[in-house]
Amino acid sequence: MTVYDVTIIGGGIIGTAIARELSRYKLNTILVDKENDVANGTTKANSAIVHAGYDAKVGTLKAKTNVAGNAMFDTLCKELGVPFKRIGSLVVAFSEEEMVTLKELYEQGKINGVPNLEIIQQEDVRKIEPNLSKEIIGALYAPSAGIVGPWELAIALAENAVENGVEIRLNTEVTAIEKNQEGFLVTTDEGHFQTKYIINCGGLFADRINNMVNTPSFKILPNRGEYNLFDKSVGNYVNSVVFQTPTKHGKGVLVLPTVHGNLLIGPTAEAVDEPRAVETTIGGLKYLKEKAQKVVPNFPFSTVITSFAGLRAKVATNDFIIEESKESKGFINVAAIDSPGLSAAPAIGKMVVEMLKEIAGNFQGKEDFNPNRRPVINFMELSNEEKAAMIEKDPRYGRIICRCEEITEGEIVDIINRKAGATNLDAVKRRARAGAGRCQGGFCGPRVMEILARELNVDITEVVKDSKSSYLLTGPTKSSKHQEDSDQLVAVSQDK
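Below the sequence we write its predicted structure tokens.
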């Protein structure tokens, strides 16, 4: 039986951040996830914001890790080659009552350590964002806020972790955990293994993972958020992240650009019972439009290219859970990581590793740890000379597969053959953006499937959209027997 030092359960932004941080040390580490790819839960469907940190209540884990994590993004994203932009955020107010709330957020942010916060008046709001409603009378401006590619960051963290020795097993669901003298016996639908320590990053299923070995101590409350994504033709309608003044129900519907030039509006906030309830609803999408129109009254909502929903893992205390189990030494829960979990992820990664050091004793670092991920080639961002050199080296970079996003065959082949590489249609979309444009894969999808089948050396009917069961093809439209019969009929006709 294989024995590991550390097992991370869950391959979202938190699990991959911890995996990459642990890869700095001489440890036998494994990350397991029940999905067909990393970043396939909450991480693939959120607002993609690196929050400044003024919204988190003073003294909470959210406040501590948000501000610390925010400061780490410049270096982290540079090392990993992930798109990140500090574009600042505005929390807009429509009344004097809301201006009072902004001042409270300003004071809270100052205590939390958020840099360069400022309350600005209507005239300055209009200078920053001329397309916003003229009814806005002021805003809280946080220049340290930013936007990032959330799944791209998690994928890059996973890839760099594997490059530094971490093992990743996908399509591997943990079904039981037993505490024993050596640590824990982990049972999955793919077999058993022994581990000294467990880090539970199970997201929406973190309470179930905890309850396999511990007395129930928290309950995950799934909360659904729906979004609309708009065409790049309106991607510069706003230049910063625009929030409405928050209420007791949350941060509300926001408007922001994405790192790839689209525009995003959302989310709703709806408690649901099922941790897989990611369907969009007529009511939810109608709500988004109604709320967004208050901030951007003249926005062309007809430019939407897709809608989607994501789930956040909340708990009643409304704070992160990052702690060792009181019952099982060596079992660390990293749970209820809802907003601002993406912003806090780098800091959470370091925090959990330090916690594990205290439990296990200090770890020996690797002299050959490489923090830099192998560079990703964005062909259309190269100069003409660089493009010519790439095509000379590999002609596949001269063949456009995704016309909407201008993605080449060479780029798709590269992301398939990387560590923790793409194995399905959506995995290619998240890594290389083929299928992320106006047609949402309507034109390039079949070609991407052909490339996947070729590079993975599988039959094209085995290429799925996302999960193992999300098949796209079941077989040829005409069987070989049908084709033989057709050929015979043609031959007889010609003879006559």
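The two ends are 70 Å apart (CA to CA).
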